[in-house]
Amino acid sequence: MAFGELAIGLSLVLGLLVRPASIAGAVLMINMALATWFAPGHDAPAWQYIGANLDHLPLLLLFAIFFATRAGEVWGVDGLRRSRQPKT
Predict the structure, then answer these.
(1) How far apart are CA 78 and CA 37, in angstroms?
(2) Which of 5, 29, 46, 66 could bond to 22 as cystine, CB 3.0-4.6 Å?
């Protein structure tokens, strides 16, 4: 778990393979959200279930944004690799 989070974080910070890292991060956030869904208990009100996942849902949406906007291709290593490839 820790090495996966480290790899995703380094990939996003460096801008290297951002789209695959975003997919892995989204899977990780879905896994964490489902793992903590019943954290308030079975007899808790419904709003507490959503409140228990407020740490994971915004990060899931950020991973979706990183994937959709091709983040990393402007200032990241992916952009440097793309600019050095010969154009056909």
Answers:
(1) 36
(2) 66
What DSSP string describes 29-78? HHHHHHHTTTTT-TTS-HHHHHHHTTTTHHHHHHHHHHHHTTTTSSSSHH
Which DSSP symbol is given to 87?
A: P
Neighbours of 48 (CB within 10 A): 11
- Closest by CA position to 23, among listed 78, 66, 80, 69: 66
pLDDT one-digit tens code per residue, 73-88: 777 887 777 777 776 6
What is the Cα Rg of the chain in Å? 17
Q: Is the pTM of this model over 0.70?
A: yes
